[in-house]
Design brief:
Layout: H1 28-55, E1 68-69, E2 73-74, E3 86-92, H2 98-115, E4 118-123, H3 138-148, E5 154-158, E6 162-164, H4 171-176, H5 178-184, E7 211-215, E8 220-228, H6 231-240, H7 243-247, H8 253-264, H9 266-269, E9 272-274, H10 277-280, E10 282-283, E11 302-304, H11 315-332
Parallel strand pairs: 3-4, 3-5, 7-9, 10-11
Antiparallel strand pairs: 1-2, 5-8, 6-11, 7-8
Helix pairs in contact: 3-6
GO molecular function: alpha-1,6-mannosyltransferase activity
Organism: Massariosphaeria phaeospora
Family: Belongs to the glycosyltransferase 34 family.
Length: 333
């Protein structure tokens, strides 16, 4: 009688054969090493995650520590709309007549107080302009004002050459309310007159607008403009203030730099609205103003004595009759 023989074992187990891991003993030193590797992986992953947050502006991109998300993440976007709606920004020449400077500040402060707004004054020497003309200071000044006032929605830059002449006009109702801005927007208009091939878009909605400008007879004016607080505003101001543009020999410095980025960057033109010059930037001198709607007239919000701070002119002297008009109107009230 023959008995069946058991299958013969081989010294070569089949590939991919499962091994009994319970019989494998890992030395304690190796276990500690593996544990440390896992911990290191977790730490590195966490650091990488928070680094990505920082790069996207969720950490460190905020301009105020007053608003903090869980975990200490600063946020300014969440603050927008919690403060006064408008901040009026003006750059002052530190070499200017102090008495005149105080009158310019008072002009803005009285208007802001009347409508519940804020003011922000900066000196042209506050910012590292290097060899650039001091007129460039308006760009970092607005950026600075946004940092100091993260809860405000709009920042209205107004040159020291201009006076607010009709304090009863509320800039928000006058320009910024979407229903009003929709009526004011000048569409399909050459950015640089008279015949620039780049024109303002004709299909923009007012709630998508983040910067409002005017146009004088030569091009975009940087004397009076408004920007909406937010990430796009910071991008716009940083792009405008790029060292490449400041070092380039533009004939009109920041004005020509503004026209350049508006015409060559669709992301900026797509957020820009142009309004009639006399809406927020009427020129006292008609020969410098937009021929159709640029000269200041009684009742307008702003009278701008454009260029009075140079060309051997005196802003204090030219503005004096208008300061007198404002004082007389205030005494009647």
């Amino acid at each position: 009688m023959h008995f069946a023989m058991p299958p013969r074992k081989t010294s070569r187990p089949p590939p991919y054969a499962a091994r009994n891991q319970s019989s494998v003993r890992i030395p304690p030193a190796l276990k500690n090493l593996l544990r440390r590797d896992k911990l290191r992986l977790v730490v590195v992953g966490a650091l990488g995650f928070f680094t990505l947050l920082w790069l996207f502006g969720w950490i460190g991109g905020g301009s105020s520590s007053n608003s903090v998300l869980p975990g200490g993440v600063a946020s300014t976007i969440s603050l927008i709309g919690t403060g006064p709606a408008v901040v009026i920004v003006t750059v002052i020449d530190p070499q200017a007549n102090p008495a005149w400077t105080e009158r310019i500040k008072k002009n803005r402060e009285e208007y802001a107080k009347k409508h519940g707004y804020l003011t922000f004054f900066a000196n042209a020497s506050d910012y590292p302009l290097r060899n650039s003309p001091p007129s460039w200071a308006k760009v970092p000044a607005v950026r600075h004002a946004m940092t100091r006032n993260p809860g405000s929605t709009f920042f209205w830059y107004l040159d020291s050459t201009a006076l607010i002449m009709n304090p009863s006009i509320d800039i928000h109702a006058h320009v910024l309310a979407p229903s009003r801005l929709e009526k004011l927007m000048i569409i399909n208009q050459p950015v640089v007159p008279p015949d620039s091939v780049i024109k303002t878009f004709s299909n923009l909605k007012p709630d998508r607008i983040d910067v409002i400008v005017t146009q004088d007879k030569d091009g975009l004016s940087q004397s009076s403009w408004i920007v909406r607080n937010g990430d796009w505003a910071r991008y716009f101001l940083d792009a405008w203030f790029d060292p490449i543009y400041r070092s380039y020999n533009f004939q009109k410095a920041e004005q020509h730099a503004l026209e350049h980025i508006v015409q060559w960057h669709g992301t900026i033109l797509a957020k820009l609205a142009m309004v009639s010059q006399d809406t927020i930037n009427g020129y006292h001198a008609s020969d410098l103003a937009n021929a159709n709607h640029g000269t200041y007239k009684d009742g307008d919000l702003v009278a701008n004595f454009y260029g009075c701070d140079r060309e051997k002119r005196s802003c204090a002297d030219e503005q004096q009759p208008f300061f007198a008009i404002l004082e007389e109107a205030k005494n009647k009230d």
